[in-house]
Structure to design on (225 residues):
């Protein structure tokens, strides 16, 4: 079974840092690009970051540019999201999602991890 | 960024009904349009990609159509498990953007 499992969410104060992880199994991880998509409470979906299969190309949404960094470790079948200088508006469920390339559909999603930014 | 506008934002329907959801892009996106279903507390699930191609395992009562800027998702003969929120998403350029969602309620 193709599976993505996120971890690392929790409560953080404004200005703090969090590192999210997403572990993949059941497919050739190194063949796929990976994304982070978030959903604020009661709101819609927002794409925030993409990394190519090799890790050589990355794109970030404007709302997180300069604060969040996506990375991956193909040897460990994992993708990460380093979140720095977090703000209250970063409070959301964070999903990792697979896509064959940057403009491809998100065909596999993890169950999500909850990030709450509050003092 | 390309803006995606869905309508309606919510709708009521009954089991067995046929429903249509509309998605409009702020600029032409050819057929680079995907549809997702999300149930409460769950991750989104890909239903249709490239405007009209059914993802593997998705029932044939789901149909997507459209091109350029106007797209539709039709669910024929609604089943109890179809009551959910549906999102469109453009994959034409970066950043990928989603519509605001359409909640299909009983």
């Amino acid at each position: 079974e193709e599976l993505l499992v996120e971890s690392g969410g929790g409560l953080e104060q404004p200005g703090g840092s969090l590192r999210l992880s997403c572990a993949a199994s059941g497919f050739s991880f190194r063949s796929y690009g990976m994304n982070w998509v978030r959903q604020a409470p009661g709101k819609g979906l927002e794409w925030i970051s993409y990394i190519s299969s090799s890790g050589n190309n990355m794109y970030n949404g404007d709302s997180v540019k300069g604060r969040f960094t996506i990375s991956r470790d193909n040897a460990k079948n994992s993708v990460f999201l380093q979140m720095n200088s977090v703000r209250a508006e970063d409070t959301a469920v964070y999903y990792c999602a697979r896509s064959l390339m940057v403009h491809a559909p998100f065909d596999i999603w993890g169950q999500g991890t909850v990030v709450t930014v509050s003092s | 960024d390309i803006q995606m506008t869905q309508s309606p934002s919510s709708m009521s329907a009954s089991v067995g009904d046929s429903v249509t959801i509309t998605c409009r892009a702020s600029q032409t996106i050819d057929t680079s349009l995907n549809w997702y279903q999300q149930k409460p507390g769950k991750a989104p699930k890909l239903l249709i990609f490239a405007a009209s191609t059914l993802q593997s395992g998705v029932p044939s009562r789901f149909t997507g159509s459209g091109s350029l800027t106007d797209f539709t998702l039709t669910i024929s003969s609604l089943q109890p498990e179809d009551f959910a929120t549906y999102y469109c998403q453009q994959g034409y350029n970066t950043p990928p953007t989603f519509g605001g969602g359409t909640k299909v309620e009983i």
Observations:
- The first strand of chain A starts at residue 3 and ends at 7.
- The mean pLDDT of chain A is 97.
- The radius of gyration of chain A is 13 Å.
